[in-house]
Design brief:
Chain lengths: ~325, ~200, ~170
C-alpha cells in the first residue's frame, strides 16, 4: 500500500492563484448588486421618513433601476457558473456561515420586492399605464397602503445585499487582498454612493439634487477613509498582506487604482460636487458618470487584483 | 535628488500617477489663463491680447530659473534631464507647418484639449484634425524620413550654440521678456479691443 | 463684456504657476510637459490594434510594436488625461462650461470648423516633424535651454505672425 501524506492544501486544484477564473461577470454582478442596493436603500429610507414628496426621484423614479440591475447582475452571475443547471441547489441549503447562501437568499427576496416597488410607482413614470386586470389594481392599492412595511424589509435587505457584495470576496481566505472584513462596509458605501449618484443624475428637482450631492460627498469621504484604512491595515499586517497592498502602491494596479478609482472616481467628482454646492454651474452628468464608472472599475480591480494575491510560495 | 523617477527613487507605476497629477496642474493653469479660447490665443498675432506671450515667457523663465537653482542646491541632476535633440531642418520645417496650423486652427494640441474639456466644439474638431494629421504623417513617413533625420551640426544647448555662458543667456532671456512685456502692453493699449 | 464668473487669471501669475508645474515635471520625471505625443501614442495603439501587420511593416508605427508595453502606458497619455480633468475643474470653478463654437463674427461656424480641422491636421504633421508641439518642443524645450526649443518657438510664432495678415478674417 502506498501512503501519501498531505501537509498542505497545495495539491488542491486551483489553490495557487490562477487568474481568469473570474472574468467580467463577477465584478459586473458585484457592481450591479451594489447599485441596486444603493438605489433601493434611499427609496426605502425616505419612505420610512415619510418624505416621498420631498424626494420624488429617489422614492418613485430611480428604483426602476433596481430590478433591471438585479436581473442583469443575476444573469451575469449565472453565466459565470460552471454547472448552470444546478444553480437551484443554492436554495436547497441554508448555511448561516456561508456568504453565498446569505447572498442567494437575499437576492431571492429583494429581486421580487424591487419589482413590486417599481410596479407601485410605475404610474409616476408612465402616467398612462394601465394594469388591465382589476386584481392587479387591488394589489397595487394594497401595496401602497402597506408601503412602509415594504420599505422596512427592503432597507434591511438592501444593507445586507450591499455588505454581501464585499463579504463575498472576504470569505476567500486564500486570497489575502480579499480576506479583510473591511470589504463589506467598503462595498456597501461604494454601492450606496453609486446609487446616490444615479438618483442625482436622474433627478430634475434642484433641491433633491443638492441633498444627494451632499450625501454623495459624505459617502465619498467615508469611502476614502475605508480605503486608507484598508491599505493601512494591510501594511501593518504580515508579508502576504503587505505584498497585496503593494499591488496598489507602485505595483501593477497602481495606475488603474489611483488614477481611475481614487482620482476620477472619487476625488474629482467630490471637487465638482463641492463646487456645485458652492453655487457653480456644473453639468450634473460629469460627476454622476465619474462616480458610477469609478465604482465599476473599483470592483473590476478588486476582483482582478485579489486573484493575483496569495499565501503560498 | 531629482529627477526622482529617472533615478528610480519613485518607482513602478507611480510614474504615471504623477504624470496624471502634473497634467491636472497643467490643464488647470492653461484653462485659468484663458488658453481655452481660440480668439484669446489668436489675439497675440493681432495685438489685442498678449496673454499667450506673457504666460509662455513667464512659465519658461520660471522653470529655467527654477532648474538652475535646483541644480545649484544639488536638488536635481541636470545631466539627467531630457533635452530635446536638435535636428535643425526638421525643427524649422515642422515649426513652420505648426505656425500655419496655429494661425488657421487657433489652438495648439495642449490648449485644444483644455478647450474641448469645457465644451468648445471647434477645439474638438481641431483635436480630430490632429489625429488625422498624425495618422497621415505616420502613413507617409517614408516621404519625410530624410528630412526628419537630417542632422545639421548645432550645439544641443542654446547657450553653447550662441557661444555665451548659461547664466548670461538666462539673464538676456529675462531682459528680452521684460522688454516684450512692456512693448506688448503699449501695443495692447493702441489696438482696438476685440470682443470675444 | 466679461463678467466676474468668466474672468481669467492674471497672465503673469498663471505663467509662474505654469512654470512651477513645468518645474515639477522636470523634478519628478526628468522631462517637460507635452501634448502631441499623447495623440501619437493613442494613434499608434489604435493602428497596432486594428492592423497589426501593417503597423509592423510601417517605418513609423513599427518602432512601437517592438516595445513590450503598450504605447498607451506612456507618460504623456496620463498627463493629457490629467490636463482634461484640470481644465474641467478650472472650467467648473470659473463657470465656463458651455457647448459652443467660438469664431469671429465675420465667418460662419462652418468655416470655423473647417479651419479648425485644417489647422489640427497641420499641427499634427508639424508636431511629428518638429519632434513635439508648442508644449513639448517649444515650452519645455525653452525651459531646458535646448537649441531645439528656441528654434521651434521662433519658427512656430514667426510663421504665425507672417501669415497672420492673410488669415485675419478668421479672427478679427
Amino acid at each position: 500500500m502506498k501512503e501519501e501524506l498531505l501537509v498542505s492544501g497545495r495539491q488542491n486544484l486551483n489553490i495557487d492563484p490562477v487568474l481568469h477564473i473570474w472574468h467580467w461577470q463577477i465584478p459586473l454582478y458585484l457592481f450591479l448588486g451594489g447599485l441596486a442596493a444603493g438605489v433601493l436603500f434611499f427609496a426605502a429610507l425616505y419612505t420610512i421618513q415619510g418624505k416621498e414628496k420631498q424626494y420624488p426621484t429617489a422614492v418613485k423614479i430611480a428604483p426602476i433601476i433596481a430590478p433591471f440591475a438585479l436581473v442583469f447582475g443575476l444573469l451575469a452571475l449565472f453565466l459565470d457558473l460552471k454547472h448552470q443547471l444546478y444553480f437551484w441547489q443554492l436554495y436547497t441549503t441554508v448555511r448561516l456561515d456561508s456568504p453565498m447562501s446569505w447572498g442567494a437568499w437575499t437576492l431571492m427576496a429583494i429581486t421580487p420586492l424591487s419589482f413590486i416597488w417599481s410596479a407601485v410607482y410605475i404610474k409616476e413614470i408612465f402616467p398612462n399605464w394601465d394594469w388591465k386586470f382589476s386584481f392587479l389594481n387591488t394589489f397595487e392599492a394594497w401595496c401602497r397602503k402597506n408601503i412602509k412595511i415594504f420599505a422596512w424589509i427592503i432597507i434591511i435587505l438592501a444593507i445586507i445585499l450591499g455588505v454581501y457584495t464585499g463579504i463575498l470576496l472576504s470569505a476567500f481566505n486564500a486570497r489575502p487582498l480579499w480576506n479583510t472584513s473591511i470589504l463589506g462596509p467598503l462595498f456597501l458605501v461604494s454601492g450606496l454612493s453609486t446609487g446616490a449618484a444615479s438618483i442625482m443624475w436622474i433627478s430634475k428637482d434642484s433641491a433633491e439634487r443638492r441633498v444627494f450631492s451632499k450625501i454623495d460627498l459624505i459617502l465619498i469621504g467615508i469611502e476614502l477613509f475605508f480605503i486608507v484604512h484598508l491599505l493601512m491595515g494591510f501594511m501593518a499586517s504580515s508579508k502576504v498582506q503587505i505584498e497585496a497592498a503593494e499591488l496598489f502602491l507602485g505595483g501593477e494596479f497602481t495606475v488603474p487604482f489611483w488614477i481611475f478609482v481614487i482620482g476620477l472616481g472619487l476625488v474629482v467628482p467630490a471637487i465638482l460636487e463641492s463646487l456645485e454646492l458652492m453655487g457653480k454651474h456644473i453639468p450634473i452628468n460629469i460627476p454622476a458618470i465619474l462616480i458610477i464608472v469609478g465604482g465599476l472599475i473599483f470592483r473590476f480591480i478588486m476582483v482582478e487584483a485579489g486573484q493575483v494575491t496569495r499565501y503560498l510560495y | 535628488m531629482g529627477p526622482l523617477i529617472t533615478q528610480d527613487i519613485i518607482g513602478g507605476q507611480w510614474n504615471f500617477v504623477i504624470a496624471f497629477i502634473i497634467g491636472i496642474g497643467f490643464g488647470f493653469v492653461l484653462e485659468q489663463a484663458g488658453f481655452s479660447s481660440s480668439r484669446k490665443l489668436a489675439g497675440v498675432f493681432y495685438g489685442y491680447d498678449f496673454v499667450v506671450l506673457r504666460v509662455f515667457f513667464v512659465a519658461a523663465i520660471t522653470a529655467t530659473v527654477g532648474l538652475l537653482f535646483f541644480s545649484y542646491f544639488d536638488w536635481i541632476d541636470l545631466s539627467l534631464i531630457y533635452v530635446n535633440p536638435i535636428f535643425l531642418k526638421s525643427a524649422i520645417v515642422g515649426g513652420v507647418i505648426m505656425g500655419l496650423g496655429f494661425i488657421i486652427g487657433g489652438f495648439c494640441p495642449g490648449t485644444s484639449v483644455c478647450a474641448s474639456a469645457i465644451g468648445k466644439i471647434d477645439a474638438m474638431f481641431f483635436l480630430g484634425g490632429i489625429f488625422i494629421g498624425i495618422l497621415l504623417y505616420g502613413e507617409s513617413f517614408s516621404l519625410f524620413k530624410d528630412l526628419y533625420y537630417d542632422k545639421v551640426p548645432v550645439d544641443k544647448m542654446v547657450f553653447d550654440a550662441l557661444g555665451i555662458s548659461q547664466g548670461t543667456f538666462v539673464l538676456i532671456l529675462i531682459l528680452i521678456a521684460l522688454a516684450a512685456f512692456y512693448v506688448t502692453s503699449l501695443i495692447e493699449k493702441k489696438v482696438d479691443k476685440v470682443e470675444y | 463684456m466679461e463678467n466676474k464668473s468668466t474672468k481669467y487669471m492674471n497672465p503673469y501669475l498663471a505663467g509662474v504657476l505654469l512654470g512651477i508645474v513645468l518645474l515639477a515635471a522636470f523634478f519628478f520625471a526628468g522631462r517637460g510637459l507635452g501634448a502631441s505625443g499623447a495623440v501619437k501614442d493613442t494613434i499608434a495603439t489604435c493602428v497596432i490594434t486594428v492592423a497589426p501587420t501593417h503597423a509592423e511593416n510601417s517605418s513609423f508605427f513599427g518602432k512601437y510594436t517592438k516595445k513590450k508595453e503598450s504605447p498607451m502606458k506612456a507618460w504623456l497619455v496620463y498627463e493629457m488625461l490629467g490636463v482634461l480633468l484640470g481644465a474641467i475643474i478650472s472650467g467648473a470653478i470659473a463657470g465656463r462650461f458651455k457647448l459652443k463654437i467660438e469664431h469671429s463674427p465675420k465667418i460662419s461656424s462652418r468655416t470655423r470648423l473647417i479651419a479648425a480641422v485644417a489647422g489640427g491636421m497641420l499641427f499634427g504633421i508639424g508636431s511629428q516633424l518638429g519632434r513635439g508641439c508648442t508644449s513639448g518642443a517649444a515650452l519645455s524645450g525653452m525651459a531646458s535651454l535646448s537649441t531645439a526649443g528656441f528654434v521651434s518657438m521662433l519658427s512656430i510664432f514667426g510663421t504665425a505672425y507672417i501669415f497672420a495678415y492673410i488669415f485675419r478674417k478668421l479672427w478679427i
